[in-house]
Every structure is written in structure tokens, then in C-alpha cells.
UniProtKB/TrEMBL annotation:
This is Uncharacterized protein. It comes from termite gut metagenome.
């Protein structure tokens, strides 16, 4: 199981309309191993709430690790994020979908800013 650099992950999610929930667990491959040598089944759960404000599409998210694994050594909030998205109109028939996102990881005391465009 640990003889590969690949990680195999299962994801279960549901969109309730007002919010969505997802659960992700590494089940095979190069997952984190605990001190006793056993697979951690590293997992991550996330809740996302989309909303609109001032002509932008927003998404607020909170994610956590439920136990020791690849992302944290115990139950921890590892992601607090806010994403804003808007289509930038270039011409009447061409727009560029752009987004910006601020991500905080309270567990690692890190902050990130991401900007991107989608095609």
C-alpha cells in the first residue's frame, strides 16, 4: 500500500442548495502513517455556503481534519476561506471568468491569496 507515491481518495458530497458538505478520505497509496505504523485514513470535511453580494458570486468555506492524518496531528480547523468570482466582460461575446480567494489555516497559522481565471 505504501509502495507508491500516489494517494487514492474517496469523496462524498452533497449540495443542499443553501450550502454543500463534503467528506474526503485517503484509503490507499501513500497516505500518512501513524506512529504505530498503521494507515491514518487521512480525512478532510468541508462546508461551503455560496451567496451573492454587490454583483459578485461569493463562497464562504470552513474545513477541518477530524483526526490525526496527513493534514494535522488531531482534530483541527485547517481551512477558513472566502472566494469572490465575477465574469470580466471583454467584448459582447467574450467574458473571462475570474476569481480571488483568501484562505486561512488556523492550525498552521498560514494565510494564502489565490487569483485565477477559468476556461
Amino acid at each position: 500500500a505504501h509502495s507508491t507515491a500516489h494517494v487514492y481518495e474517496a469523496t462524498l458530497g452533497y449540495d443542499f442548495g443553501l450550502f454543500s458538505l463534503s467528506w474526503n478520505t485517503n484509503f490507499a497509496g501513500a497516505d500518512y502513517a501513524k506512529a504505530n505504523g498503521k494507515r491514518a485514513y487521512s480525512s478532510y470535511a468541508e462546508a461551503v455556503v455560496p451567496f451573492k453580494l454587490g454583483g459578485y458570486d461569493f463562497a464562504a468555506e470552513v474545513g477541518l481534519t477530524p483526526w490525526e492524518g496527513a493534514y494535522s496531528n488531531e482534530l483541527n480547523v485547517t481551512n477558513i476561506g472566502l472566494k469572490a468570482a465575477k465574469n470580466i466582460v471583454v467584448t459582447e461575446s467574450f467574458t473571462i471568468p475570474a476569481f480571488a480567494k483568501v484562505v486561512l489555516n488556523p492550525n498552521s497559522e498560514q494565510a494564502y491569496f489565490v487569483f485565477g481565471i477559468t476556461f
